[in-house]
Amino acid sequence: MKNTVVTIREAKERGEKVTMLTAYDYSMAKLIDEAGINMILVGDSLGMVMLGYEDTLSVTMEDMIHHTSAVARGVKNALVVADMPFMSYQTSVYDAVLNAGRLMKEGRAQAVKLEGGREFADHIRAITAASIPVVAHLGLTPQSLNAFGGFKVQGKSEAAARKLLEDAQIVEEAGAVAIVLECVPAKLAKLVTEKLHIPTIGIGAGADCDGQVLVYQDMLSMFGDFKPKFVKRFGEVGAAMKEAFQNYSEEVKAGTFPAPEHTFKIDDDVIEKLY
Ligand SMILES: Nc1nc(=O)c2c([nH]1)NC[C@@H]1CN(c3ccc(C(=O)N[C@@H](CCC(=O)O)C(=O)O)cc3)CN21
Ligand SMILES: CC(C)C(=O)C(=O)O
Ligand SMILES: [Mg+2]
């Protein structure tokens, strides 16, 4: 079944959980889509897991369009959401609409995601007015790394918790179709989820969110640079891949790969004439 901003909203109304995973290319998007995951996020985490940067700040609009279009070509049913990269929307409402439009028009995203609350309500309203669905992202917003002083859990004090709840309500009012809650204490995420009509999608925000999202390299144990507390390893794919690479290396060096069945034939008399 095709997932849309309408069907994910209906899922919340029916009390059904929503699933989301990141993808950054065609073949991975296809596998995730075929597994029946509801939403695929082309996250700006691609800067870290695909490009090897230490944070997400260097990711460009060109990076996002390049990867989003690859993902979109692999997807039949999942809703494709693209992250707006750092400085593609913070500078003005005009830039926000222009760049959200590029992600939809050139990247073929079906929604965009941006980090922030009340300070971007006007941006969310304007993008939404252009018929581009917006997912908001609150809590640990990695593009604010330097302002926060690191990747840290947000919303622990009463003031911070109240601000996060208000931000969630303001972005819903501004037209957001869903909210990602990243590294938010579970009980606060539960309260936000109950107060909102749009789905909350948690990452490190407990089981009471309407949905969950993970970076696929984390849940497949393919990314060793760091392991946040919220990651569960659903497969040991990194180890399986490394083993396959080692087996290939050994067989090539031993001369056992390629075998006759991997090889193309030619009539012996053709070759004899060349000797
Ligand atoms: N591979 C990967 N997975 C992610 O989930 C992810 C990315 N990359 N890149 C973009 C952001 C950055 N994210 C991060 C990065 C680090 C922590 C982290 O170190 N968390 C600590 C919490 C520290 C605290 O208690 O305040 C942890 O132990 O989980 C969390 C989220 C989430 N996103
Ligand atoms: C971690 C998720 C929510 C994200 O924003 C990303 O992958 O960039
Ligand atoms: Mg992101």
Description of the molecule:
The protein has 275 residues and is an alpha/beta fold. It has two domains: 5-236, Alpha-Beta Barrel (TIM Barrel), CATH 3.20.20; 240-272, no CATH class. Helices cover 43% and strands 14% of the residues. The protein contains twelve helices and eight strands. The chain has helices spanning 5-14, 26-34, 46-49, 61-74, 93-105, 121-129, 145-148, 158-174, 186-195, 216-219, 237-254, 268-272, and strands at 18-22, 39-42, 79-83, 111-115, 134-139, 178-182, 200-203, 211-214. An eight-stranded parallel β-barrel has the order 1-2-3-4-5-6-7-8, surrounded by seven helices. Strand 3, helix 5 (93-105) and strand 4 form a beta-alpha-beta unit. It is elongated. The model has no long low-confidence stretch (mean pLDDT 97). The protein binds 5,10-methenyl-6,7,8-trihydrofolic acid (MHF), 3-methyl-2-oxobutanoic acid and magnesium ion (MG). Magnesium ion (MG) is lined by residues 43-45, 83, 142. This is 3-methyl-2-oxobutanoate hydroxymethyltransferase. Keywords: Transferase. Its EC number is 2.1.2.11.
